[in-house]
Amino acid sequence: MNSQHEKQTDLPQLAQLTAFIDQNWDNLVDSLREWLSIPSISSQPEHGADVRTAADWAQEYLKKIGFPQCSIIETAGHPLISGFWKMNESAPTLLIYGHYDVQPTDPLDEWQTPPFSPDIRDGKMYCRGASDDKGQVFLVLAALQAWAKVQGAPPLNIRVLLEGEEEAGGEAISLYVREHGDELAADSVLICDTAMISPTQPSLITGLRGILYTELAMNGARHDLHSGSYGGVAPNPLHGLCLLLTRLKGEDGRINIPELQAAIHPPDAEEKRFWDEDPLKIAAELAREMGVTELVGENEFAPLERLGVRPTLEIHGILGGYTGAGAKTVIPASATAKLSMRLPAGLSPQTVFSWLEKAVYRACPAGYTVKLHNLHSGDGVAVSKENSAIQAASRALRTVYGVDPIFMREGGSIPIAALFTSTLNAPVVLMGFGLPDDNIHAPNENLSLEQLRKGMKTVAAFFGYLARG
Amino acid sequence: MNSQHEKQTDLPQLAQLTAFIDQNWDNLVDSLREWLSIPSISSQPEHGADVRTAADWAQEYLKKIGFPQCSIIETAGHPLISGFWKMNESAPTLLIYGHYDVQPTDPLDEWQTPPFSPDIRDGKMYCRGASDDKGQVFLVLAALQAWAKVQGAPPLNIRVLLEGEEEAGGEAISLYVREHGDELAADSVLICDTAMISPTQPSLITGLRGILYTELAMNGARHDLHSGSYGGVAPNPLHGLCLLLTRLKGEDGRINIPELQAAIHPPDAEEKRFWDEDPLKIAAELAREMGVTELVGENEFAPLERLGVRPTLEIHGILGGYTGAGAKTVIPASATAKLSMRLPAGLSPQTVFSWLEKAVYRACPAGYTVKLHNLHSGDGVAVSKENSAIQAASRALRTVYGVDPIFMREGGSIPIAALFTSTLNAPVVLMGFGLPDDNIHAPNENLSLEQLRKGMKTVAAFFGYLARG
To answer: Which of A188, A328, B98, B215 could cysteine-pair with A322, CB 3.0–4.6 Å?
Structure first.
């Protein structure tokens, strides 16, 4: 994919950085175990004290590494951790983002070992938070620790900003970034909170789709009706929603919003070729992961294109009528559907909302009224492959993994990445060391120790390459 | 509608029966108040003792009227009350069915007076159960009481069978009827548990639709997916259900099951003319009741035809994904829909289930699997207008109301009516004295006192006409 096979720039400190990581491996793993043992589940109030303990642990570790400035920032929810290690005025500044909170652990009985007792087996560290995101935050800290040991300080100015509400949808960090954008000034941002395609094929995420999350409310009769007395003449908003939703998107997966289709830029020819050739056999891999025999959607587009840049429209839930056990013959007066759209970077979710709203009115069958509500939205992100931070990350991955990374578009949305892009006007490097089978948000979450170690070395190299520009 | 303007057969006892009801009106109303005050909510275990008290009250009233045989029959749930008053071997036998249990009362704060403190205002008795069904059972008992006073006994053999689980979907009565069909032998059945069109237009129900209640389960991927990571290639059973359900029934309201459409008999020409002419302005009345400006469904058929004999397919609920507050971007692995069909009398719900099952497989979009479950079903009922019991009821209504009754098809299903029809092989007279604004199953349930009084007189006359054949 990356056709620029430029000569590998030598990094004089690399051997020492690598040696530090290898020689201190057991200590590093023990430190990570310690952090992982703290059940910092941000969405469960009974774990409030644990979240605080995990924040304190991170602050202590920053101090231990040698951060001259480092503080806990109180918020309305869980605290932020801020650190700054200033090299000199002329050096570039990198902002490192991550989160120290974790997902809940249900269903508990599906864990092979207790979720907060880190257990190493088959070369993997099993623990809630191992991959998402404590393990990946820790590998960045270990890379900084290596630089501190090898030459007393990182090779560039480093800001760290960690949050404790990522898994709970908390607003503290976005409020903070909006209010303190000036203090956070950085030339680039590093987020290690994603996964690679495979342990032998490093990848960098150069695009994230935006998101628009809406709720569609449909009304029929004034009050609920009995299907015996009114079935055959009454509007049934559950049926009305089905009609409307299939008009917005049919079996072919195409979204029937003309303004949206017209606004989609044709993809870069090289990227399009890569998607169409599917050299990584993503289509088969996706089918395997989902346990299906065929993919559903816009089959005239390659799966990678559909996941990375095509807009999507998904129904997440339909509420109305009766869904308990047994039978109830109600025709509900109203019903609502939760709908989200993933949007190619560059499209404003607000604009798309107005297009969707028009399409909803057009598609509404006779006898019903509808109203569309905008619940939340987030911009997409697109980073040029030519950007120097992406180039530094690419070089670091090639150095450690021995192969060029693939540039991927990620289908998901990371609102904080979009916020850093827009508020700080800094490119975001999304370099994750997770793997597809890490079981994040699921029982038996794990992180490959090989990935942990390579991640530390890659990030250490990244700092060096980035510092040199 | 009833073109047989035969000369009114005189009923010698009618003046005395009517006089008894008028002269004892206050006592009769007081007795009904007493019964209504007992909160016999069958679906709420905390009211178990009240249900029993209401059963005891009914048994005592049967004794007071003069029933020579009368007993409480224990069941797995709430008791049945059985009474038999034998006139002589050669007289016809009428089985009277009703229920003494009532619906719950929520939302309680919408009641103008407490639900179990019978309150008379504006000529109506307000109380839970006033119309459904204690008030209507009571008017039948009062008619029997009148006959007992006037000539010592009813003019024909009377069986009474009351249940206490109608509002809780209990099975006790159907088990009993199936096991004791022989002992219940009757020439016809009277059920007063429905409503008339208006206080000036009596009506008799000559048809009930059957019901088939199913649950449709659709599967996509092996487990729930995140719309960011899989949106665009993943099956979404919520969307799959929408596609399937709109293929089963489009905006035109027509059910796409060819076997079903082929099995529908063309309606009787006279009935069809009545539906099409809509002399009662039912279309406008239905729109008013529902608070809508247009009816939804098969607009090429008249509303009365759509409600009474056309098959319907309604979605009662769709379960799957996320329907709580806020946003969650899940693509569920599976989703289910509750679907019911109302069926013209004469069609076997089992046969229709097999047709629906085939239609569901045909309509299932690519990438999904479906399974249809039969939750329950009930046969429809059709009684000929020429039947002597219907003729006797018609005559009684004309005598008391001064106008011919209209013969109506009712859209709802009354499974016990179908069971009486099939088990006892006896025609069912569905002669209700409720009105459309009785608020049954809702706050401020009421029964018009005028309807209560006319109902007593009509049922008394009905006994007389039926006895004479």
So the answer is: A328
